[in-house]
């Protein structure tokens, strides 16, 4: 395939090695690449997940980011560190500021808290070749933060990301151009490539596609017919082609709905879960009011515990849009009483408010309900929380054992701040 017509950019994909574990090691004066350290979401729960393991711990004991706290071996050399999400976010922001010394803000595209793309087009006179710039960034991050990073270099975002995943994590820095795709990417199994999960791998393997090279040579029309737009994208990726933008500020797309869910720390009964649903509705409606939106479709998702298995996911549309907590709560409880089997323990709850409209005060009012008063109360509660903190004013049920708001208020992304 002729690739001369496709854009060639200088893109770096930078990944911080075992980011959370590295930060905790540095805080303790340890070498992140030598210390055996595990970052645990909640050290008071044996079943809590290991959020990050240092490279040495992974290599010696095979601990990964899906391991559980109780699975850690009884090794006195292992350091157990509770998660501090606020610290990780702070360091991530500071690293982004450092990268801004090498490239303008519109050329820096964060992918996650520990991974970022940087487009360095036109920077050669200041910093040298893209390989030299990658080496400079890698050294700067190490000297300023004590953290090792891996950097993939490519003609586009896909090539930079794949090189980081496949080669740079072992070599430190790795590079791939369009001309290197056949040699460096095609021999790899499809599941090693970014964007191909287990289900897609299984489907491709059934079609006789095992390696990326076989994917590249597979008839394009058949891939598009079988997988739609995804098949088309994967075909072009197999040839190393990615036309996603590498420069520019990416604006947030229009909000389609507001959702909030939680994986519960214990099995909840049907009576307990009502309190949890109320707290979730409170948060969803707060977010909707902040965006001056109201919705007409309310969704409730329930997952039972592993011993029970199953669950349900149902929604209901209402005549008038709302962002009132109690309106949403009553609909959720109606769905719950209709579809809950009455026996199973519950381990995950999720609520959403969709089918959004602008909350501009021009909606049709009901003659039989105090809609305006409920809405005003909601906005007043939001103002109090904005001024004095998320727990400044709570419903009484939030203080019960089944409440979740107080515990989650001290967390970021479900983990301790």
UniProtKB/TrEMBL annotation:
PROSITE patterns named among the record's database cross-references: UMUC
Start and end residues of each UmuC domain: 11-197
Any Pfam family: IMS_C
InterPro entries per UniProt: DNA/RNA_pol_sf (IPR043502), DNA_pol_Y-fam_lit_finger_sf (IPR036775), DNA_pol_Y-fam_little_finger (IPR017961), DNA_polymerase-Y (IPR050116), IMS_HHH_1 (IPR053848), Rev_trsase/Diguanyl_cyclase (IPR043128), UmuC (IPR001126)
CDD domains, per database record: PolY_Pol_V_umuC
PANTHER family named in the record: DNA REPAIR POLYMERASE UMUC / TRANSFERASE FAMILY MEMBER, DNA REPAIR PROTEIN HOMOLOG YOBH
Similarity remark: Belongs to the DNA polymerase type-Y family.
Listed name of the protein: UV-damage repair protein uvrX
The organism of origin for this protein: Lentibacillus halophilus
Taxonomic path: Bacteria, Bacillati, Bacillota, Bacilli, Bacillales
